[in-house]
UniProtKB/TrEMBL annotation:
Organism superkingdom: Bacteria
Keyword Transmembrane set for record: yes
The species this protein was found in: Sphingorhabdus wooponensis
Annotated protein name in UniProt: TPM domain-containing protein
UniProt keywords, alphabetically: Membrane, Transmembrane, Transmembrane helix
Transmembrane segments: 49-69, 89-108
Length: 229
């Protein structure tokens, strides 16, 4: 299933980020790639996991309190009592559990709720996995000096990743990119994702210029433009 494109990034945002990348690369041999996506994963397994948990709890409750639920069924049927056979009770039980499972899956088709019920660790892993796959395709080992670096922002998960190629990673510890991440997320939370990406790029440029100053021969090997997926 294709991930839906975001609508938060305007033409002005694209121009702002492109200009920020071009400016940062004026002072470094590093090559910055920026990618923004609406959603890193659809988390299709999450509704099934929650539905199974709800169905199990329902089954355990029905088995533990059969007389209570039989009373509810009789009440809905006008109060007429009925002695259910084992087969009939089992059929009612399985039907109720199946309806719980299907109902939960249906409710969790609503993506905001699905994301809210997705554990933070899973979202972090899925965003990082998506960022890593894009990094391998678009930045890793794509420059002569192995100085490519990816800034990846996933809007609906409210997560971002910075992944650096071999030469950069050998000199710059991951925590050094903290200022860039803060600059990015502060602006995104304020509703200005384009400004956030541009601010992060500026911070990344400062670090790259310190460790990888621009040389005499430094072709522009990776695109400066913001990539939307």
């Amino acid at each position: 299933m294709a991930l839906r494109k975001i609508s938060q990034m305007s033409a002005a945002d694209h121009a702002l980020v492109t200009a920020a990348v071009a400016e940062a690369e004026q002072h470094t041999s590093g090559e910055i790639v920026t990618i923004v996506t609406d959603l890193s994963d659809h988390y299709d397994d999450i509704p099934m996991a929650w539905a199974s948990a709800v169905a199990f709890i329902a089954l355990a409750t029905y088995v533990t309190l059969p007389e209570f639920y039989i009373g509810l069924i009789n009440g809905l049927s006008g109060g007429w009592g009925h002695d259910y056979s084992t087969g009939e009770y089992l059929a009612l039980l399985l039907t109720a559990v199946a309806l719980k499972w299907i109902g939960t899956c249906f409710i969790l088709k609503w993506m905001p709720l699905r994301l809210a019920l997705t554990p933070k660790a899973i979202k972090l892993a899925r965003v990082r996995g998506r960022a890593m796959s894009l990094f391998k395709v678009g930045a890793e080992s794509k420059t002569m000096g192995r100085t490519g670096i990816l800034l990846y922002l996933s809007m609906k998960e409210h997560r971002a990743e910075i992944l650096a190629d071999e030469a950069i990673a050998s000199k710059v510890a991951p925590e050094i990119w903290g200022d860039a991440m803060i600059a990015l997320l502060d602006q995104v939370k304020a509703g200005h994702p384009g400004a956030g990406v541009a601010a992060a790029v500026a911070q990344m440029g400062v670090v790259l210029a310190e460790h990888f100053p621009k040389g005499t021969e430094n072709p522009n090997e990776l695109p400066d433009r913001l990539i939307e997926l």
